[in-house]
Amino acid sequence: FALLQTSIERSFRSGVLLAVGVSLSDAVCAALCFLGYSQLNLTESFHESLALFGGLILVVFGITTLFKKPALHAQTDIRAGGRPGTYRYIFKGFALNSINPSVLLFWAAMVTLASVQHGYRGTQIGVFLTSIILTVLGTDVAKAYVANRLRSYLSLTLMIWMNRAVGIAMVGFGIKLFMAGFTMEN
């Protein structure tokens, strides 16, 4: 919720810069997962195991997100130092995203989804991951805009419901991926 908080407390521009940092971090994590995946033995049993593991990861993250209680006013030092520059917001977004261990696991699950569920290989996985990163960036920019424009309407209750929706979606995708591990054809 650093994106929403930054957009509410600072500006739309600041929120967008934070989102750019998050997307850069996502790109690095996705590339690491993709490169790691491409070095592994790609047997059928490996795909099944990867699907089960990736599905389990998504279910756990979905359940965690579903029951996570957000705080609209998390402690930050944004106000203390005046208006931070462009690179500071980008770095903050990159750092906040990079220190979250679930980000790397999420991208590992997405590589698994692309290869196991959709049967993508090589460049197709790269396009799939890039599409996700660009979609997330677009969504983050939209969230920054909405948060900045509707700052007086955002409430803790709304954030809780947003967490629930995201959690349910992640659980659903996780179950689908997990089930794909059991139904793979030779």
Automatic annotation (TrEMBL):
Q: Name one GO molecular function term.
A: amino acid transmembrane transporter activity
The family database entries (InterPro entries) matched by this protein are listed as: LeuE-type
Q: Does the entry feature the keyword RNA-binding, yes or no?
A: no
Organism superkingdom: Bacteria
Q: How does it sit in the membrane?
A: Multi-pass membrane protein
- Spans traversing the lipid bilayer: 16-37, 49-68, 89-113, 125-146, 158-179
Per UniProt, what is one Pfam family of this protein?
Answer: LysE
Asked if the keyword Cell membrane belongs to this entry, the reply reads yes
Sorted keywords for this record are: Cell membrane, Membrane, Transmembrane, Transmembrane helix
Location, primary (coarse class): membrane
Compartment(s) of residence: Cell membrane
A single GO CC term for this protein reads: plasma membrane
The family database entries (PANTHER family) matched by this protein are listed as: ARGININE EXPORTER PROTEIN ARGO (PTHR30086), ARGININE EXPORTER PROTEIN ARGO-RELATED (PTHR30086:SF20)
Q: What is this protein called?
A: Lysine transporter LysE
